[in-house]
Amino acid sequence: MAERTAGAGDTEALGERVAAGLGPGDVVLVSGDLGAGKTTFIRGVCRGLGVEAPVTSPTFTIGHLYPGRVPVAHLDLYRLADLGQEDPALLEDYVTDRNVALIEWPGAAEPRLERVSKRVLIRHLGGDEREIEID
Ligand code: ADP
Ligand code: MG
After folding, report:
1. I need a labelling partner for 20 at 20 to 30 A (CA). Which of 1, 51, 58, 73 fits?
2. Nearest residue (CA) to ligand 1, atom 17
């Protein structure tokens, strides 16, 4: 499925709708260039999962854990070019069968993930327009 959004609010609303189909153990990979709207989309998913805390990009850790209707892990692996050189346990706190995991820049983690529920790809179409592909 692919949809176009015309602003950050639309992208957040789409994320919120996607959340309705998610539950414990689901892993969602969110790809796209810097500024495409990955965090914006994830903010919407978090809202949909009942997260009330402000959702911002993890900077000093690889991820944030938020309580919600389902616990949610939000990871940003931008700085992890290769998980092969990292501790294999790094993902274990975040990707579990008890929570939903939402992963920006998932490349480094992909070979380690046993389960991927959805792949989201966001493309700039100029201005505030984005194309959001969800598989
Ligand atoms: P990323 O996490 O992919 O680097 P962010 O979600 O942090 O991107 O930032 C996207 C920026 O683009 C935000 O400033 C947001 O307000 C803006 N924006 C403009 N139009 C859209 C849109 N249609 N969808 C998502 N974000 C948009
Ligand atoms: Mg981001």
Report:
1. 58
2. 8
